[in-house]
Amino acid sequence: MNEADGRHGDKPGAAKWYELFSRGARDWLRHDEKVREAVRANLPEIIAGGEVINDSSRTVRVPVRMLEHYHFRLRRPEESQGAGQGKAKPGDVFSDPTRQQGPGNKGEGGRDEGEIQLLLEFKVDDIVDWLWEEMQLPNLKARAGPSDETDWVREGWDRRGARSRLDRRRSFKELVKRRGTPGATPTFTDEDLRFRQLTRRRQPAVHAVVFFMLDVSGSMSDRDRKLAKTFFFWVVQGLRRAYRSLETVFVAHTTEAWEFNEPDFFQVSGTGGTVASTGLAKVREIIDARYNPGRSNIYLFYASDGDNSVSDAGDARAALSTIAGDACFTGYVEVSSGLSRQLATETGKLFAELTAAGCAAGSYALNDFDDVWGAVRHFFTAESHAGDAAPSGDPAPPPGNP
Amino acid sequence: MSEGWQNYVRRIEELAAASGLKFHPVDFEAVPDSFMMEIAVYGLPVRMPHWSFGVRYIYQLIQRHMGHSRLFEVVFPGNPGHAYLAESNGLAENILVTAHVLGHADFARNNLLFRRCQEQVSERIVEHAANHARQIQQAIETHGAQRVEAALDAALSLEQHVDIDQALRRPRYPEYLEDAKALVDDEFHRRFAALEPAAGGSVVESKKRAPVPAHPERDLLWFVANYAPEMESWERDIFLAVREESFYFYPVFATQIMNEGWASYWHARLLREADFVPQQAYLDAIKCHSDVVRPVAAEQQVSLSINPYHLGFAMWEKIVAKDGLEAARHIMEQDDDFGFVRNHLTRELADELGLFRYSARSDGQIKVLEADLTALHEALLGPKYNFGAPTVSAMRVRNDGTLELVHDSSVDGRGLDLERSRKVLDYLQKLWRRPIVLTTVNQAGSALELTAP
Fold it and tell me: How many CB atoms lie within 10 A of CB A74?
């Protein structure tokens, strides 16, 4: 037909609008955005679930279902009728486990919307930003004095330098100063050129080290360890906001203590009793060997079910107080899934004493993944108050001063 | 795309016209597969933006990725009609598809339901929908994407709730109840009124405001657009735009078996009669035809759904063979799927095709039930009642503006899915801006009220 021929004949090579623009993709992006909004709105609950943490990369994956645009729909019946075709006699029975939905919904939206799961990836930094906004957590104050770290800072001008550092405005001023007579076409000479100079400056310490100490004695279940891991993960994220360089040290103990690297740390399980002082002694040892409390911000977070052996109380108290003296903050989470003893344990008492003595310390009972957020909030607000009051805290020097 | 197909279009059209097909001219356009897919997702070449289409788009992408669905053509009725053909179609496929499209064009021009809806919506639905999309784009610019999305969330969630038996542009309910007394106008009453003028003095009193709605109203889109107490006019426009598109979609939905069957019947027949098609293309086209109308996927023995192309095709073949083409055309003009299946899917044909009825338990166990033709008809048609939606009507607007919706569970046999219904109420409440109450029944069959907010 004419129209048909004409349509194809008229503009060869001219791109049709639909080759340049996909409405489906646009609406899909909007859907994606909505999912992200929804995830963001429920973030604490979602990431408190242990599954989302993705080791070693800076992202978190959240499994989400596709959103459904809701319509009025009948309740799914116990038994539905449908029509089929093929070689089947009355009375034949087959089983079709994939066929969850009755045949009743052939209209739009009749698909089972839950079929497809998306795995949304979020940057941990974004999430932490959202959370800190959401929970109105204070930003931590770094304490500690100067460090050996240096950085290049812009300072002053020179007549020689790399082309890329030429300061045009400054150079032009020099030219104007030299000629003094407006009107004439200015010509630059080498004399006029000014180059920005850089110099090395020592930076104030923004270095921190976090000790994660985990009780891996026989009484700690997998679930307890997972709870601790989730909590530790978010602690690291929170501290990273405040410190440019953050080191982590992982110590596990039963009646002995060992240092581990991160991947192994959470896999470790031990047997036997709990002697917290061994772990604390190990931490002390590592601090003395590698870190200078004057230059590093030291944090200790200890996760345990609290069943420290009674005879260890004295040693543990002593070890803990020496660490607490050097640390910005020491925190204790009691992971006791199922039993909620609310810190009335041996270890719980130790930390309670510490807090009572005015040290920057805090405790929190973590019974379930839902509590992880409570714990994070608790420690970060406690830490920032402790930071305000801590008598040992050197005021951070104003940046830029050597 | 194979250019050779263009040369066949006119010859196929001539052949179709000679075979008694009466259709408006059709514009054929070959488009990339990606665009075909979008047309299938949106139902129209240009349609309003909404995230729910994005979800369907992804499903479609995945399906296509898995090789489940291949789209050859999409055709829009009208004068002229528009047919979009996939650029990836081969020559044989395009010849087949051209014939198929003409079958649809004949159906759309002559079927009463289609005709009525085209009279209502106009014969230029494609342009109308593009206009709606533009209008909504303007609303987004003026009122912000969020507010427009809220309106679309509500309107599109009610898209099946239209009353196709009313006019597209229907008047509002009368403001006042008709005065029953005034209707009586005989000798006696005239003399009586003349005797004592004061007796007729209660005219003011008798003028009573009509309740809103005047009767249970199932056209929820229309009702909300007209009677929502605090809706902005642009929001009403969005509701009416969605409603207009639903009026267009209804005949497509309600005649799917007939319409696809009719088009398949004609593409097969025209292809047989088209002696100008080269041998090889003919064979390829026949192969393609048998793929389209095959009852069950190749690897399966039994299918739990029925391919409408196959069923419709088989029924039309039977009808034409038995009663002749004239009778078939008559049926095509007058029926929709309900009449078509109930009247013309006979016991013999159902047996011949191996149709059966089954019951599926929620644990996935499926049992084939004994043959019962009437029940088979209803099992086939069940998903099509009421545009595939539950029967929900607006019953009353209370003095404080509260909207009362009622679900008629006696028609549907069971209550609503509560969680989804609640979500729909949430969408709607944002526009209605007063409370909404929905009555349905629970599992035990006793009445249950959902409210928003």
Answer: 23
Could you tell me what percentage of chain B is helix, strand and coil, using 3-state DSSP and rounding each to the nearest 5? 60, 10, 30
Residue A38 to residue B240: CA distance in whole angstroms: 29
Residues of B in contact with A100 (CB under 8 A): 362, 364
pLDDT of A275 above 90: no
Give the pLDDT mean for A201-208: 67
Q: Which of A131, A119, A145 is nearest to A240 (CA)?
A: A131
**Cβ pair B56, B40 in contact under 8 A:** no
Q: Which residue of A has its CA nearest to B374?
A: A83
Q: Is the pLDDT confidence value at A1 over 70?
A: no
Cβ-nearest to B368 among A67, A69, A88? A88
**B window 139-158, beta carbon within 8 A of A:** 153, 156-158
Q: Which long-range contacts (CB under 8 A, 24 or more apart) does A35-39 make?
A: A35/A64, A35/A66, A35/A67, A35/A118, A35/A120, A36/A120, A36/A122, A38/A64, A38/A67, A39/A64, A39/A120, A39/A122
pLDDT at A270 over 80: no
Residues in chain A: 402
Closest partner residue to B301 (CB to CB) among A81, A86, A105 is A86
Average pLDDT over residues B406-422: 91
Q: Which long-range contacts (CB under 8 A, 24 or more apart) does A124-127 make?
A: A124/A58, A124/A59, A124/A60, A124/A237, A125/A58, A127/A43, A127/A47, A127/A60, A127/A237
pLDDT at B452 over 70: yes
* Alpha-carbon gap: A47 to the closest alpha carbon of chain B (Å): 24
Q: What is the pLDDT of residue A35?
A: 84
- In this prediction, residues B345-357 reach a mean pLDDT of 92
Residue from the list B49, B295, B417 with its beta carbon closest to the beta carbon of A74? B417
pLDDT band at residue B140, thresholds of 50, 70 and 90?
Answer: very high
Report the residue of chain A nearest B45, measured CA to CA: A18
Question: In chain B, which residue's Cα lies nearest the Cα of A72?
Answer: B421
* Mean pLDDT, range A29-45, rounded to an integer: 80
Provide CB contacts within 8 A for B349, sequence distance 6+: B314, B315, B318
Give the whole-number percent of chain B exceeding pLDDT 70. Answer: 94
Alpha carbon distance B122, A206 (integer Å):
71
Q: How high does pLDDT run on average in chain A? A: 73
Distance of residue B334 Cα from the nearest chain A Cα, in angstroms: 23
pTM exceeds 0.80: no
Q: Which residue(s) pair with A258 in the sheet?
A: A252
Contact A95 B364 (CB under 8 A): yes
Q: Which residues pair with A302 in a beta bridge?
A: A213, A332
Q: Which residues of A touch B13 (CB under 8 A)?
A: 1
State the average pLDDT over residues B421-428.
Answer: 94
List chain A residues with CB under 8 Å of B356: 83-86, 88, 90
Residue B22 pLDDT level (bands cut at 50, 70, 90): very high
Q: Where are the alpha helices (DSSP H) in B196-255?
A: 203-206, 220-227, 233-254
CA distance B401 to chain A (A): 22
